[in-house]
Protein: protein acetyllysine N-acetyltransferase
Amino acid sequence: METNILDAVHALTRSRLTVALTGAGISVESGIPPFRGPGSLWEKIDPTEFAHIDAFMKNPARVWEVLMGAMKKVLDTARPNKAHLALAEFERRGLLSAVITQNVDSLHQKAGSQDVIEFHGTFATLVCMACGKATPSEEIGLESLPPLCACGGIYRPDCVFFGENIPMEALGRSREFASQCEAMLVVGTSATVQPAAMMPVLAKQNGATIIEVNPTPTPLTAGVTDIFLKGNAGAVLSRLAEAIPIPARG
Ligand code: APR
Structure:
């Protein structure tokens, strides 16, 4: 067995409290493009023009036409992949306490994960900006953009735009987990967006073992990561799930 997989197995089976931090990379194998890197969303669409709250408030129709409409089509049909399923299995086996995700695609929940902290909110719910009514995204069609609530108000996705704060509860719970965990699995994030990218640093400062899964190194890899598992999340996490022995019953 590869040394780093073995090291990761030891770290995960020894740890009494493990959390995962995930990013767009974990959903690439579900057909959702990442935000950065070759073929990514921000290569095609300027986030300052279409993913900042000021841009949305100034011209919601344009943001829906250029960005949100396309995202909704992909997110409404995406299915969890082997990586999401492996993390859900780790939770069932008592190896993982929670997933802190930067993703708004609900794929961890669709894979069966119970404790998922949606650090950047979710696209699964649209909220009317006039009356506050929340509606499952799948119930809202894209015939006319921006989609309107029965009250005439404009719907916005319940996710965090640039320029907006992280939901208090998500931030509080994430900080708590990061400062108490003994191991953190960091999967498929470029670790460039704050405050999410701070969580592995906080965990490291509190003595946790940082296990990073990514096909390419990130700003964490050199100074924060203890065990770097190079590769795609689906293959690496399935490999890890196979390598962790299931304790004999009784
Ligand atoms: N498996 C694992 N990692 C992968 C895979 C894969 N199959 N494919 C790509 N990656 C890695 C890339 O190497 C990169 O490091 O996933 C990372 C994706 O980085 P980003 O696209 O920057 O995504 P993320 O870190 O989640 O972005 C953070 O930025 O745009 C905002 O709000 C948005 O939540 C997002 C935040």
In short: The chain is about 40% helix and 15% strand. The radius of gyration is 19 Å.
